[in-house]
């Protein structure tokens, strides 16, 4: 009998992580490798969000993780909504909550032709038609529960707690129908396009859904910004999928809901045009153009048909105005050219009034204290003494100067991987330099910048530090707005919680130091961001404990504006530099060819 062989089969090492790559890749930026033993790599999460999702790294199905993420996101939103809202028991105008409720009132109680003319001094409708249609639908549903919520005139300023529950529910339902699916689909497509493991993509999804500023403005202060942002995300997702006609349609829907979507218009145009030119595809260009025209036509169709129907019934768009039709706003000469008795004139009047309400140039360069260039400059040079036309031209030139560079890059390099950076850079340019900017407009550049977390090295320390810095700074600049309506507590809770989950200041400074970066870059970023975090913390202490001088009651708000404007300007420059770097514009020809293979 032969002796047993001394050879023993080699024992296979245990697999780490899941088969889908979530948590097992050594390049995953959400954890570090520490080799306590030569034969093993022990991987540990490096920030709390990774720790919370650590048990899910072995999940093989998205349906095991996604429902839990959506439930947690919904729980945070509903809990935040338990606080007060903008204008709660604060006459005479009662804030943004009353504006949204009032639009449900007028769209369900008066004829369509009067929507953009009715009592403009009391929260007159000043958003595009899709917002009006959304208000009409919500108002109809609410009237089934309690018709008194939307009775004309008598329901103004209502603080019915049941109405509050309904209004909060409309935000959440609208968000879960449009914004949440758009975020999930975008993160899935963008992470796959960037080669990001599934588990890392889940962490990015949680971070995006718990973005503090979005929850604070929509679910606490009260608005429907996420509907517009959801349509923008759907447009970006369609670009990633190569469905360019749908990208145009979804972006028209975003514009039709809130005109602030214009912040992204140049980037959408540049990418779609670049995809038609490089290489030349005239058929695609014509298809996108036709889809855009048809989408705008469908958007305006209910308003036009409603106006014609009211005119047919003899209902005047301005029942409180006697005599011949007054001159049209923006285009007063048009009244003398057109036949005011023609069947088409009510439609022209309606569309001109809609544009006039949507773009209120008469309000001035800025309406309130907002952390952009013009409001900060106004501290040194009083801009209100200059003619409005001059300020409009200055804002136009400055805005174009800031948005042309990123969009030229996107046009000549229409790469899908550049979309979040290009959108963020363009939106920062609009926020900093455009006309009539509101504090809440910071949501627009923050959204695409936060999407970087789902991309390649998105949860690396460097990207996480910059995205976190922008979001914390953005929430901080909104604090004066939130404090005016007694929402300081949800601001502190949501902002600090998000910072803690991502391992960011002021809860942790670990995101600023890593082995694969040069020391000067690490310390430079740390000192730059640290100065702003220190300024924000000191500002909160001073603002809470020191009363401003009687002749300067807005001193602390102005200081907030100055610090925020500088910080946002730095965010703009960082996004632009990252865009230039990742576009390979400055790379050698050989490097460009090698990188192009991986796009």
UniProtKB/TrEMBL annotation:
Signal peptide: none annotated. It comes from the Eukaryota. Residues 1-35 are annotated as: Disordered. Its EC number is 2.4.1.-. GO terms for molecular function: dolichyl pyrophosphate Man9GlcNAc2 alpha-1,3-glucosyltransferase activity. Keywords: Endoplasmic reticulum, Glycosyltransferase, Membrane, Transferase, Transmembrane, Transmembrane helix. It is found in: Endoplasmic reticulum membrane. InterPro entries: Glyco_trans_ALG6/ALG8 (IPR004856). The chain crosses the membrane at residues 65-85, 165-187, 199-217, 229-254, 261-280, 286-309, 418-437, 488-513, 525-542, 554-577. One of its GO terms (cellular component) is endoplasmic reticulum membrane. It is a multi-pass membrane protein. Pathway: Protein modification; protein glycosylation. The keyword Glycosyltransferase applies. Its main location: endoplasmic reticulum. Belongs to the ALG6/ALG8 glucosyltransferase family. This is Alpha-1,3-glucosyltransferase.
